Task: structure prediction
Amino acid sequence: MKKYLFLILAAVLVLSACGGFQIGDSEGSNASEEDSASGETEGSDAEGSNGEKVTLDFWSFWGSEQRRPVIDKIIEDFNSSQDEIEVQHTYVPWGDIWTKNLAAIAAGDPPDVIINDINTVKLRAQEGQMEPITEFVDSDVENRFYDQMTEATMYEDEMYALPFNTDTQILFYNKDLFEEAGLDPEDPPSTWAELEEYAAQLDVEEGGSYERIGFYPLIGAGSDVWMMNALGENYISPEGDVKIDTEPVHDTFNWILEQKNKYGENTITSINSQFENAQQDPFMAGNIGMMVQNANYYVQLRDFGQDINFGVAPLPEKEEGNGHTSWGGGFVAEIPKGAKDPEASYKFIEFLTNHDSQLYWAENNFDLVAHQEAGNSAAESEEFSEAGREVYSLMVENMDNTLLTPQPLVAPDFASTVNPTFESIISESTTVEAGLEKAQSDLERIVENNR
Amino acid sequence: MYNSNRMKFWRAFNLVLLIVGSLFMIAPLFWMISIALKSMEEIYRGEFTFIPQDIQFSNFVEIFEIAPFFTYFINTSVITVLVVLANVFVNAFIAYGFAKINFKGREVLFIFVLSTMMLPGFITLIPQYVIFAELGLVNTYYPLVLPSFFGSAFNIFLLRQFFKGVPSSMIEAARMEGANHFQIFFKIALPMIKPALFTVAIFSFNGVWNDFLGPLLYLNDESLYTLQLGLQVFKEQSSTQWNYLMAGSLLVLMPVIILFFFFQKYFIQGSNILGQTDEK
Result:
């Protein structure tokens, strides 16, 4: 009996020597509490010339080999650019970072700056999860960004975050396969009809099954992207007007189903499954000739595509003159509610989104940055190959046609409400007419309830 | 008996069935190993091959350059050892009380303990976090380790059933000889339910070793991170480094597999006894 007790005791003693059991020695929550406490007691002179350095906790999900060094360099630059604020970066896993953030806000112990999703800013602002930054933002800063990005950070006339990066959906096509099929590799399709026509030429059919398909709308993109492309706007407006049961959307689904029935369920499923588990890539493997993808996909082609000869083009339009509307997302830097020193936090997020930081980020990660000028500079950057510059320029141009879809406050979960219905249309367990009518009324009901 | 042909046939049949079954079970593991040894180029090329064309052992080295997996390993081990020890001894101690000591309100109290099993962990997550934050213990291992020192209903229930199987006559005899409950607990009761203790140990090892949410919420300092958090560096919004992720996952899986081989005997005993009904 004593033996066991000793063992446990000894183990506890040895292990408590490890860092994880020392309270308050590390720079985490406790240190920051002390910071704010001492800030309060010292009061007036804390902000002054030889006031203590503020340590800011910055959370991002950029932990990969590619991104981490880039953000760390920007932070280093910030830390050495002034001597009042010291930023410390913590990597928190993608997706889960926001769960953790919520818990930390609830406990009153949040980070000082966090990278978060741009489409849910208004929602978090409404829920009181972030500090407004309007008082710090001057017009120079406000006008740095693409308009739709700035708009997404506004809630009740207050600005709540600074946009950091975005993305946009474009068409990738395999030039070698174009040539093989007798198509002009410099003349990508620009309408849905052309897409179909080109696809037919790229198809390789053998004994009733497809070895290669030219194009299928739902590989790489969702039906929502095509709906937006057809409508020229999201199918639910910020105010809650629903435009699902409309002619353009009917056309969209009929068009998708047409393609699906041409190739057959099996072909689509087999290619899609390769794509969805993301462990294989049908485009790189040459199993599909054209595909709509997030423009960032270029990085994967560059790094792992083994010199695949590809071209890029804007999303084809439904018919000539309808517009090449595309869709994008993105991230913002924001200050969680309860952060100890919002002004200091703001100084850092301003630095994150200034021209030089953004250009550095663009050149090293190939993300489309929120800073327009920096994006323009990146499009001509010597850091990129010629193909890189071509893709980046298209990304920048494409922002004119790119919609962001901030979640409407009257129906924040709009997508999860209607997506099952869209899926059952695609799987043909509902007709287009019945499905769209149902989706329209489902969404309208939710909007009604939330108003 | 084994001489009869029919018996032989059934043995062979069982063997084949087991082999096919295990192949099915083990296939994902092989696939994992296969991906861990491939290059990203090969993975993206999308040919369905189990044997990589160009074996990249370097993946296993490179992951250590991307994230300090050795530190994560130590961190995870520290937490795991403490939680497993606590789970085994604390729960056994409580369970012994419920099984073998008569006191007023025992059954009611036991039902209270059991009722905590009805609460999904997610519900207590935020309040628990807030409490630990108030105590200033966020960003330490205390929130991950301390709760296990206060018992868990399932383990208490499990061990109580085993302790009930310890003959009361034996305990009475020990008491007659002048042993107190502590002595009886350590010298008689505990050794008799060894398989159950190993079962609890293995279950809780698995739980802690693979725990993601706890460390995610409570640890802010990257030097305190655990393996499960570390593995996430290979996943990002648009791309995943599958080869690194699988190589890392294999390394993380290794202790679980090794442990299973070591304690297989107890584990299977434990699972068997789990299936038995309460003894009179």
